[in-house]
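Morning, I've got a small favour to ask if you have a moment. I owe you a coffee for this, so here goes:

…
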Amino acid sequence: MEHDSDTNSAGAGGAQIEQHSAESATVDHSGRTLGSYQLVRLIAEGGMGVVYEAVQLNLARRVAVKILSEELAMRPEFVQRFQREAKAAAALNHPNMVQVHDFCQTDGFCFLAMEYVEGQNLSDYVEEQGKLGIHESLDLIEQAALALKAASEKAIIHRDIKPSNLMLTHEGRVKVSDLGLAKILTETSDLTLTGVAMGSPYFIAPEQASDAADVDHRVDIYSLGLTLLYLLTGKRPFEGNTPFSIVLAQATKPLPSGAELGTALPTGLEVLVQKMAAKNPDDRYPDYDQLLTDLRRVKAGHAPVPEPAASRRNFSSARVYVPPQCLLPLPQPASCCTWFERAPRPSSAPKLLVKPLPPVHRSCRKPWAVS
C-alpha cells in the first residue's frame, strides 16, 4: 500500500502537518495559555507551524490551535497568508469543511483556532484499511465535492486537495481541511510565494504546477479525481524520484486506468475519473453540479450523462499533426472504418493545418493526432 506521505494530518482541525515525534526540535508549549486558549498537547507540525489540541476557556470548547512558526511570523507576507487562510475558511460554513473559529495575535504568537476533528485523514485510512470499495469511495468523494462546491460559490478554491487533507470522522463524515493554499478569486492581489510548494506533486493539476496563481476551481476537480483513483486502487497514479519528476509525469503521461494500477473498474467509473482528471481543464467537469450528477449516477450503477454532440470536438476543422511518413494518398476506407486514431505529437514536430481528413481504415492504424 502506498501512503500519501508528503503530509499527514492528525485528528485536528486541518493543518498541513506531519505527525509530531520525540526527535523533533520544536519547543512544546503544552500547558501554556494564549489569550482564551489553553494548549493541552502538541499534535503535529509542518512547514508553516505546529498544531495543538487546546481548550477555549471562555466556552469550555475543545479546539485545535494552529500556530505560525516563529520564523515565519517575522515575515509579513506569511502573516498575511496566514490571515488569508483564516479569512477563506471563516467564510465557509459547511458540514463537510473544517470550521475556523478565531484568528489571534498575542504574546508574540500568531494562530488560528479551529474545529477539532476526531478521526483520521483518508491517506491514513487507506493505509490502514487497504483500497476501498466503489460505493464507499464515491460517497467520500461526494462529500468532499459538496464542500468544494460551497467554497467555489464564494469564489474560493482550495489548491491542495489530497487524501491527507480530507479528514474522516468516526461517524463517517468527510471534512475538507487546510485552506492554507486557498486563493480567493475576488481579491486583486495574489500571495503565491516563491519557494512555497503550492500543492502536493502527487495530486497537483498540470496547469497549477506551471502557474499556481492563474488557476480556477477545476484544479480542485482534477486533484479530487486523482484522490478518487487513490481510494479505489490504494496507489498514487503518478510516481517519481523527485517532486519535479512527479509533476512532469502529471503533465506528460496519460492517467493510468484502474486496471493498470491493479484494480479493474467499471466503465462508467473509469469515464468519471478520466473526465475529472483530464489534462486539459476544458475537458474536465466545468462545475460541481455536473460532477455531482455524474458521481451520483455512477454510484447508482448508471453511466455518466453523455456529452451533447455540440460539445464534442469538430475534427473537420481541427489543427492536426500529420507525421511525415503519413503524407501519402490514403486509400478509400472500408465500411468498418472509424475516425483517425489519436497519438501524441512529438514536442519537436511542427503543427500543420491540413484539410479535413477522411476516416482511416481500422487495420491501417495511421497515428493521426489532434493537437
Summary: Residues 313-371 form one domain. Confidence is low (pLDDT under 50) at residues 5-10, 14-24, 192-197, 313-371. The longest strand covers residues 37-45.
